[in-house]
Each structure stands twice: as C-alpha cells, then as structure tokens.
C-alpha cells in the first residue's frame, strides 16, 4: 500500500479572488482508502472535482502515476466518481444499470493489426464482468430488479458497481451515504470498506462526518478553510491531534487555556497539572486538550478540581456528564452514574492531558471549551479548588 498514485502539488483554487484551496500538497497511495474530512465549505468537494477533472485548478498540478494530468479530460482519467445523488436509470434493471458503461465502450479490434478498427465489448464478457461486480457488492440475485424495488443502500451499491465495472484505478466518493438513514449508513460504511478491500483500488472519500472517516479510512486528511490541518491514520488523528481545531473536530474534547510552567507541568485554573508534554517556552500560553473519556470522577477530597453535575445523558455504553465548574462546562464520559446536583472531584492522568501550541482556532470552541476570557477575570481565590492545595501552590 505504499506506492504513490496521485499527487497534488501546490494546488490553489480561487473563485472571484477568494481562495478556497490554499496551496494544497498531498499524495495518495495506490489501494489506499483516503478520506477528506472537514466542515462544510472547507474545500473537500473542490479537491475531489479537481482530481476527477471536473474543475480546473487556478494553479498547481495533479499528478497521476507521476504524470501531470491537469489537461486530461475526466473520461480519459482512470478515475470514476460516485456522487451523493446516484441517479440510476429507473427504466433499466440492476444488470443493465451496471452494464450501461460497458455497452457504450469501444476498444481496438484484436483482429485488426492496424489497431484503428474499434469494436464493442462482447456480450459474454459484459455478462461476466457485471455478474462479478454484483457479487462484489453483495447484489447477486438482484439483477432483474428495477431501482425503485431496492432499498437506499442497495441502490447505492448499484451505483458503486456501475462506477467500478469499468475497472478504474481510483474511485472518488462525494458524501455517498448522506441520503441514507443512520442505521443503513453504518452498515454501508462497513460494506464500502469491504468492497474497497475486495476490488483493491484507491478510494478517495469526502465526508464531514468524523465517525464515518474514523470507521473506514486508512488515512484521514482534516481540512479547514482550504488548508490541510493534519494528515494521519484514524488513530493518529484521534490520539495525537496536531492542533485545537483537529481535536475539536474529531471526537469530543474539552479545550482549555493553559500556561506551561515547565516541561511536564501545565497550569490551568491556577492549578498545576502533571503532563507528558514539553518543549514549550516557560509561561507560554497553550491549548490544553482533554478527551472526555480521560477524565475520572473521584470523591471531592481526591479531586484536582471539584464541580457540580448539571446534566447526565445515558448513551448506551456510557454516560455523558456535564460538570459545571463556576459556569464552565466539562464534558466527561464515564460508566459511573453521578446524579444531577452531585458535587464531584475530577482527576486527569498526565497522559490524558495534551498540550498544543496556541492556534488561530483558540478560543473559538463552544459548549465544553470556552473557558478563557472569564477565567482571566477570576482570581484564584474564586476558584472552587481544594483550599489547602490551592494555597500550597501559590
Ligand atoms: N462554482 C463555484 N463558484 C463560486 N464559489 C464556489 C464554487 N464552488 C465552490 N465554491 C465555494 O468554494 C468553497 C469550497 O466549496 P466545497 O464545495 O469544495 O466545500 P466542501 O468542503 O465540499 O463543503 P460541503 O461539505 O458543504 O459540500 C465554498 O466556500 C464554496 O462556496
């Protein structure tokens, strides 16, 4: 999976002088499942359209197997696309929908030594390729059904089979599951990954759904405002987000303003917390990212901080608990049930505290993370800390 197939070099796209892709650099390996993930308007579809040849970049290059393909039209690229609105032909059955592209194709006549005469693909080969493809997408036995007699997920699989039957090297998928309900979407995520592994080609997938990206991808490219924020495996992106934007976008996070005291010690709310990170300047302002599942609820007297539970939501496998800390809301995910109104202690292990350089995104976060301004106005005495420990520290 390490051979490079597509490279985007300094890709820029501007509409009316507004830069929507800003010097994108990215390579995509053969047989990789790569997802472009980011909020609405960040430039995912534009990137996909440029790879497919439907949009011409303002500047920069697209390389395929090392060859510049900027000027190659879409149908001559070995790239097919599945869109969210996968218009199947309603009057054709499943078999004919998938066979359609093959029936349109002509290729050099093997009996013509000049190679000029072109012939249609033989019917027997079409039948074989369509049936193989229907098997790959688990639709064998559905050949004679019309699209309106299929579920949304089955229709989407017909669209995928239709895009794959031409044997492209790359399949582009633009939010292909967006129209499906949640249960079906989850089933199709697993199904898509299986299909990609079975046919063994590169998938470039666009979504704004972080869970979808984490479930399916070998590599996730997190984008915002036309720029790449981070490229990595789902594990890297989740466990080691490079900045507060990525941390906030992937999964849920508490993002708190902190100050580095020295290596392995950060100060939040006037309290020092041991952490594993270093390499920051003394007194440097930083973003402190803490995942809700990395916070332990402990008895008040053992807490590094204490607060009051303001909301408890049962989520099946765990509870989402909001703890109010003088008006600030921590999100904690735990299997322990603490009732609303309970006073609890919070404890965070050093490896649950992630320190990040202050970014343009600092202070932009909502519900669980906008602590900074009001905190500045607080004196340590007003914090709900264990009195003695607080005094020790000062
Ligand atoms: N043809 C166009 N003319 C002008 N602006 C455009 C055009 N196409 C896209 N844009 C703008 O470019 C930016 C990026 O759009 P793009 O569709 O790539 O975003 P996206 O990340 O795919 O968003 P979404 O998830 O909502 O589809 C947006 O601000 C959009 O308004």
TrEMBL record:
This is Spermidine/putrescine import ATP-binding protein PotA. GO terms for cellular component: ATP-binding cassette (ABC) transporter complex. It holds the Pfam family ABC_tran. Residues 6-250 form the ABC transporter domain. PANTHER family: SPERMIDINE/PUTRESCINE IMPORT ATP-BINDING PROTEIN POTA, SPERMIDINE_PUTRESCINE IMPORT ATP-BINDING PROTEIN POTA. Keywords: ATP-binding, Cell membrane, Membrane, Nucleotide-binding, Translocase, Transport. The complex is composed of two ATP-binding proteins (PotA), two transmembrane proteins (PotB and PotC) and a solute-binding protein (PotD). Its EC number is 7.6.2.11. GO terms for molecular function: ABC-type putrescine transporter activity; ATP binding; ATP hydrolysis activity. Part of the ABC transporter complex PotABCD involved in spermidine/putrescine import. Responsible for energy coupling to the transport system. It catalyses: ATP + H2O + polyamine-[polyamine-binding protein]Side 1 = ADP + phosphate + polyamineSide 2 + [polyamine-binding protein]Side 1. The gene is potA. Belongs to the ABC transporter superfamily. Spermidine/putrescine importer (TC 3.A.1.11.1) family.
């Amino acid at each position: 999976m390490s051979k490079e197939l597509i490279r985007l070099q300094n890709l820029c796209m501007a509409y009316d002088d507004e830069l929507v892709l800003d010097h994108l650099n990215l390579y995509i390996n053969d047989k990789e499942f790569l997802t472009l993930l980011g909020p609405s308007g960040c430039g995912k579809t534009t990137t996909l359209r440029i790879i497919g040849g439907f949009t011409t970049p303002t500047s920069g290059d697209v390389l395929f197997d090392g060859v510049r393909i900027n000027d190659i039209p879409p149908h001559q690229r070995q790239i097919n696309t599945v869109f969210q609105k996968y218009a199947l032909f309603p009057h054709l059955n499943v078999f004919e929908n998938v066979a359609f592209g093959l029936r349109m194709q002509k290729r050099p006549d093997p009996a013509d030594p000049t190679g000029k005469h072109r012939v249609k693909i033989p019917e027997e080969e079409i039948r074989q390729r369509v049936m193989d493809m229907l098997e790959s997408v688990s639709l064998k036995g559905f050949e004679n059904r019309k699209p309106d007699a299929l579920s949304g997920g089955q229709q989407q699989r017909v669209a995928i089979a239709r895009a794959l039957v031409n044997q492209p090297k790359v399949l582009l998928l633009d939010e292909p599951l967006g129209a499906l309900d949640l249960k079906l979407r989850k089933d199709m995520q697993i199904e898509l990954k299986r299909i990609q592994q079975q046919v063994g080609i590169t998938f470039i997938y666009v979504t704004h759904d972080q869970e979808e990206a984490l479930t399916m991808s070998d590599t996730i490219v997190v984008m915002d405002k036309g720029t790449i924020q981070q490229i990595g495996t789902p594990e890297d992106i989740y466990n080691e987000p490079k900045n507060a934007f990525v941390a906030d976008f992937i999964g849920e996070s508490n993002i708190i303003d902190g100050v580095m005291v020295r290596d392995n010690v950060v100060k939040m709310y006037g309290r020092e917390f041991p952490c594993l990170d270093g390499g920051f300047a003394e007194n440097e302002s930083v973003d402190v990212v803490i995942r809700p599942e990395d916070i332990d609820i402990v008895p008040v007297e053992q807490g590094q901080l204490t607060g009051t539970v303001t909301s408890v939501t049962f989520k099946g496998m765990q509870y989402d608990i909001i703890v109010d800390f003088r008006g600030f809301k921590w999100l904690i995910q735990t299997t322990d049930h603490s009732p609303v109104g309970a006073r609890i202690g919070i404890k965070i292990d050093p490896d649950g505290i992630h320190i990040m350089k202050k970014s343009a995104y600092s202070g932009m976060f909502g519900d669980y993370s906008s602590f900074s301004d009001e905190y500045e106005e607080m004196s340590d005495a007003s914090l709900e800390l264990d009195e003695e420990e607080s005094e020790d520290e000062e």
